[in-house]
Amino acid sequence: MTQTAATRIRKQVVVEAPITRAFAVFTERLGDYKPAEHNLLRVPIAQTVFEPRVGGHIYDRGTDGSICRWARVLAYQPPERVVFSWDISPHWQLETDPAHSSEVEVRFIAETPRRTRVELEHRNIDRHGPDWQSLSDGVAGAEGWPLYLERYAALLSEAS
Amino acid sequence: MDTYRSTNVWDALGDPTRRAIVERLAERPRAVGELAAELPVSRPAVSQHLKVLKNAGLVAEQPAGTRRIYRLNPAALSVLRDQLDAFWARALTGYTDVVEQPEQETP
Hints:
The structure holds 2 protein chains of 2 kinds. Chain A is an alpha+beta fold. In chain A, 21% of the residues lie in helices and 35% in strands. Chain A is built from 4 helices and 7 strands. Chain A has helices at 3-6, 19-28, 30-33, 145-159, and strands spanning 9-15, 45-50, 57-62, 67-77, 81-86, 102-112, 115-123. By secondary structure, chain B is of the alpha+beta class. Chain B has one domain (2-99): Orthogonal Bundle (Arc Repressor Mutant, subunit A). Chain B has a 3-stranded antiparallel sheet with strand order 1-3-2. In chain B, strand 2 and strand 3 form a beta hairpin. Chain B is elongated, with a radius of gyration of 19 Å. Chain B starts with a helix and ends in an 8-residue tail after the last helix. At the A-B interface, strand 1, helix 2, strand 7 and helix 4 of A face helix 1, helix 2, helix 3 and helix 6 of B.
């Protein structure tokens, strides 16, 4: 595994929907499908807004009117591509320093007029922490991957 | 949900003292006593925080004579990565459900 592979996540899904709908749902209805625990506000989220332009934000508005802007829109090319920053720190708070933000790119590819492949890459994850990569020698054993893969698998089966 | 929460590295780093410990261990491995001397908290408190960090997979310990040396676990990046991976797995599952619903709700 290269260093780059360790600092990014790639996922893809194929959905039974035309590309324009796939793009529109991903952006406009983000609040309807993102996991509920993804909430930096102190109150429940009333609405998640994806501002459809470069320089816009993705923000959550709480039931009390409070607002949390947790992403900056870096590229907006409907219906093919969108890129946004991930301004959420590892302690699940708003990250105000862009140097410590990671980045999410989503690409939409029409496989047929009714079917779309959605490719997602979350990259530069290492920017969130101290210099993880420099910690070369150490204990990458029992407490590392296997344990977390197990938890991840449990999470997936829970979600399905 | 509870499992997700209690093992959450993001939560483990939510505490400012633990964040300070991680930052110091990122410079070099240290013993409990060294950390306690550098931070405005007691030695037992440092031990308690180290335990949380260790349970979250962020910190590893190794004996050195009579002392225990703590260092950042190089697998910590993988841990962070796993958290985000889990997030997107759930998000994309939800997304697929929404996008494949009949289109009646959208104008």
